[in-house]
Amino acid sequence: MSKLRVGVIFGGRSGEHEVSLMSATNVLRALDPEKYEVIPIGITRHGRWLTQGDPLTALKEGNPEGEAAAFLADPTQRGLVAVPARDSKLRRDLARRVDVVVPVLHGTYGEDGTVQGLLELLDVPYVGAGVTASAVGMDKAMMKQLFCQHGLPTVRFATVKRREWKHDPAGVQRRLEAQFPYPFFVKPVNLGSSVGISKVHGPEELAAAMDLAAAYDRRILAEEAALDCREVECAVLGNDEPVASVPAEILPSREFYDYAAKYLDEESRVIIPADLPEATVREVQRLAVAAFLAIDCAGMARVDFFVGRDDGRVILNEINTIPGFTAISAYPKMWEASGLPVSVLLDKLIELALERYTDKRECRTDYAG
Q1: Tens digit of pLDDT for each residue in 315-333?
Q2: Rounded to two decimals, what is the model's pTM?
Q3: 3-class secondary structure for 44-97?
């Protein structure tokens, strides 16, 4: 049998560009060359799609009635380009079909539903959440509102628009201080890997934290700090019937698990499996699956929690629809501890992508009246 052609997309226009490159390095290494023809697809920080050196491009369907055209994925061009005739050598060189795509993109323009929407338009199966779940999973404010509607436990939070902060910083400060005490966290609504996040200990730190978050997004999330809690994560795998892994506990080298603690320091530790009572493990797994289903996720997700040190209370923090696959990332390590080594995990993710694609093709796209 011929090998499945797997496109791996990485890089991108995001503050998490470097993290994506680290994840892609491990994914490319772990994909079984006996099963897959792997096609790397790099996206620069400015959004240029690089395939030179790796003979790769998305399949473009021509118009048999005239000259075909396609929009470039390159945002620096913003234009249509002519597609060579179907029988031309150039067309044959360009049109290498991709059977399934593995997006290893973290943050904006990749994890937020944008690339997923492009792949839907191209009718290409892809690993992970669809457009809606990706967008909700990236938008921390929408995510938490949805969790609340499903009755899932989360900390108190408030959303501030960048425009509000610029025009009335004193009013915003009064509103936030009325909602929860210091310390609290300030984050960009749409980003991950703890980029742009600050722990605000008092009024004198608020302006810098708000300005930092506003540099990354037009909306800012302020949320209550979960004090005296352990940081716990759980991996989820599946489509309509997802399952949860053994959980992990994060022991950050800093006050909280910021970007440096995740990727730069060598003192942060991940304990797998987490040393938790069995009842707490079951509750973490139950809530992880519930969060996954609440946003209609697919394929994979890492769900983050706070667990009270004294009372064992489990609080849902957030869901990540494209979890890291770096050498230190917890998602593949949790599944390895649950009996799925990373190569088998990727096999399963590709199977789930094809399963979801087949299921979606049962939907009609015409209407006869």
Answers
A1: 999 999 999 998 889 999 9
A2: 0.86
A3: CCCCCEECCCCCCCCCCCCCCCCCEEEECCCCCCCCEEEECCCCCHHHHHHCCC
